Amino acid sequence: MKPKVLIGITGGVAAYKAADVVSQLVKANCDVRVVMTDAATRFVAPLTFAALTQQKVLTSIFPDTSSGGMDVIYPHLYPATEADAFVVIPATADTIGKLANGFGDDIVNCSALSLKTNCKRIFCPAMNFQMWANPIVQDNVTKLLKYGWHQIGPEEGRMACGTSGRGRLSAPTAIAQIILNSVY
Ligand SMILES: Cc1cc2nc3c(=O)[nH]c(=O)nc-3n(C[C@H](O)[C@H](O)[C@H](O)COP(=O)(O)O)c2cc1C
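A: This is the predicted complex of the input protein with flavin mononucleotide.
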């Protein structure tokens, strides 16, 4: 059976790189679903991910219809409860804070609350280096690691905002390989 990978996309410039990761996972025979925060949809269109996965992309915890089965009426539970791996790419400072503190107010963090215990949880931070160095962000990262999350990156380098430092999203190929190693 194909491994089920749920990708959560949040609102940073690096969101476009998540398309490359998704494409590589689909080619590697994973069953990939995508959930996006409202902010993420400001950076990349959900249609990009729908086209790559040939599956509906979820952008809200509320269904867009009042009829249908469990998988339609409960977007915060399906596909999350069935995922073998849940990966947040890129993970914004905002979403890292919400994940670390059990928020359930959007489809990405609410999906994270619904994962099965043995689902691999991975986050790939990307942000300005000063945001990354902020002690509140670092406290939230430590908290996620304490709860069993795996962290990929961020890397040193030049960022879209014109500065350099630690905050760049890790290379999509490296992220895809770590996900594949975790599900195969
Ligand atoms: C142009 C632009 C780029 C941004 N890039 C980032 C980023 O790389 N990382 C980050 O943590 N926040 C970034 N932000 C701020 C987030 O978009 C903002 O905190 C948002 O509320 C995140 O929402 P989300 O975590 O629900 O997706 C950026 C905002 C703008 C306008």
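The chain is about 40% helix and 20% strand. Residues 35 and 58 are 5 Å apart (CA to CA).
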